[in-house]
Write a structure and sequence with these properties.
Helices cover 55% and strands 11% of the residues. The protein is an alpha/beta fold. The strands form two sheets. Strands 7-2-1-8-9 form a five-stranded parallel beta sheet. A four-stranded antiparallel beta sheet has the order 4-5-3-6. Helix 13 links the parallel strand 8 and strand 9.
Length: 402
């Protein structure tokens, strides 16, 4: 099926200099940054390239910056011939990037939403309302019970992110999270506090969600070019009319990332490409399943270009790979009649190593096997059979079966 999902990261993936090479190489990217800068009221590219790290980590700066870098990466991907993905999904803020790249929300409107979302969260961040912590070594069902047991009528702790079987994040009032910490550690689990002072993706963020309602109601939403999966339901948006409600709910609801990956797997997705700064989602994909190959546009552009092969070409590539595998099998299984060590090394061992290199590169997803590679494989096998001094009739029979 060779289906691909486009994934978009959330806050925390930003870093100084992100998308810099794309900005320098592509006018389309520079145009995106000019639009963002006009809406934000400052030079976003200069902020990302030359600004202090402390400024870039501020929520009200980081969110529109990550959105712009993510849309820029996807824009270049499509410009370079990348095929439209089968599905899109984003982690927290990344869902807004996914909706923008799917054509549901225009880029200027997406920047305005990210700007307001970041501003409202920045206000919550400075209020010191709570905290968040990453938990490992604890089953999700048990952790939900720990959070309930650690909460009371005035203080709460909840699960905020179901990122992977080995990575769950809790959020809430500091007192309740500290109480959960005691119970987690008492039972052999581990907990590490995140560098935030507000309980994102928890009911305590309700004022922030309410503040976002206005701008969400003002935007225009179109039907998607590809299905976008919601953080709230772990299912595609049923239609564009649900976008304001789901983005509102997302602020106070847990990110169901594990369920999103399970949905993609169930739908036959074989590859994922992360568009945006860093490779956080590539890492989470690897933690969630070995059955979806994880790529990051920032790091793996050459390998990602291989995903753009047309279906008929993909079919021939697989046929050619089978030819190489058959050549290796024949090389191994035929009897050797040549006991000259030097002739065996040059005529058998070296061609066999070349066959294995072609096979391994293809099976690791690096380089597809072309018709020329298949012909080269047959020629390498002929050399091997000749060096093993196989009778001519037996050699013809083996080659005819390839």
């Amino acid at each position: 099926m060779n289906e691909t999902a486009a994934l978009f990261p959330g806050q925390g993936s930003q870093y100084r200099g992100m998308a810099g090479s794309l900005y320098r190489e592509h006018e389309e990217v520079r145009a995106l940054y000019r639009q963002s800068s006009e809406i934000l009221g400052y030079d976003l590219y200069r902020m990302c390239e030359e600004g202090a790290e402390a400024d870039l980590t501020q929520t009200e700066v980081a969110q529109p910056a990550i959105l712009t870098a993510s849309v820029a990466a996807y824009t270049v991907f499509r410009k370079e011939g990348g095929r439209r993905p089968a599905y899109g999904a984003g982690h927290s803020l990344g869902e807004l990037s996914a909706l923008c790249c799917a054509g549901v929300i225009g880029f200027p409107e997406a920047v305005r939403i990210a700007k307001e979302r970041g501003r409202l969260m920045q206000q919550a961040l400075t209020s010191g309302a709570g905290t968040m912590a990453a938990v490992s070594g604890v089953d999700a069902t048990w952790l939900r019970q720990i959070c309930e047991d650690s909460s009371d009528t005035e203080h709460m702790a909840v699960i905020a992110n179901y990122n992977a079987p080995t990575q769950i994040v809790i959020s809430g009032h500091t007192k309740a999270v500290q109480e959960a910490e005691k119970r987690i550690k008492a039972n052999g689990g581990r907990l590490a506090y995140l560098k935030v002072s507000s309980p994102f993706h928890s009911p305590l963020m309700k004022p922030c969600a309410e503040g976002l309602k206005g701008i969400l109601a003002e935007c225009t939403y179109r039907e998607p070019e590809f299905p976008v999966i919601s953080n709230v339901t772990a299912r595609p948006y049923p239609d564009s009319s649900q976008v304001p409600q789901y983005l509102y709910q997302q602020i106070t609801s847990p990110v169901l990332w594990q369920d999103i990956i399970a949905y993609l797997l169930n739908k036959g997705v074989e590859n994922s490409v992360e568009f945006g700064p860093g490779a956080v989602l590539k890492g989470l994909m690897i933690k969630n399943t070995p059955f979806i190959k994880a790529f990051c546009f920032e790091q793996d552009r050459e390998m990602i270009s291989r995903l753009n092969v047309a279906p008929e070409e993909l079919f021939h590539n697989r046929q050619n790979l089978q030819t190489i595998i058959a050549c290796i099998a024949a090389a191994v299984s035929t009897r050797n009649r040549n006991w000259n060590d030097e002739e065996y090394r040059l005529g058998v061992e070296e061609p066999y190593e070349q066959l294995c290199i072609i096979r391994d590169r293809a099976q690791n997803g690096l380089i597809p096997v072309s018709a020329a590679d298949a012909d080269k494989g047959k020629e390498l096998l002929r050399r091997i059979l000749a060096a093993k001094q196989l009778p001519a009739e037996e050699c013809r029979q083996i080659m005819a079966e390839l």
